[in-house]
Amino acid sequence: MSLCAATHVVQWGGSDVYKVGGKVFAIVGTDSEARIFVTFKASEMSFEMLKTEPGMRPAPYLASRGLKWLQRFDARTLDDQALHDYIRQSHTLVLAGLSKKKRLQLQGQVPPG
Prior knowledge:
This protein is 27% helix and 29% strand. By secondary structure, it is an alpha+beta fold. The protein is globular, with a radius of gyration of 14 Å.
């Protein structure tokens, strides 16, 4: 939530969904065994490097549609600090995909409307 213009909603069966400009950049959920899953958008290079590493996988639903999203299901490859770095990168990627006007509005440089 400390990232620029980040918002939080609970949706999709109780998952914590983090957005910027109305677009998702991270999803945190749990399974029936209370394991935490963190899903985030990745650069093409990060996706290729991490998708088969222990504790990582292409994100269900999102990656199957050709999107470069990863899911960490345990910390074997990414510790919490590395995960935070990838979430920041995800936020940056999603923010960059917004229109210039929307980015400037979110950064408080242009009034809404």
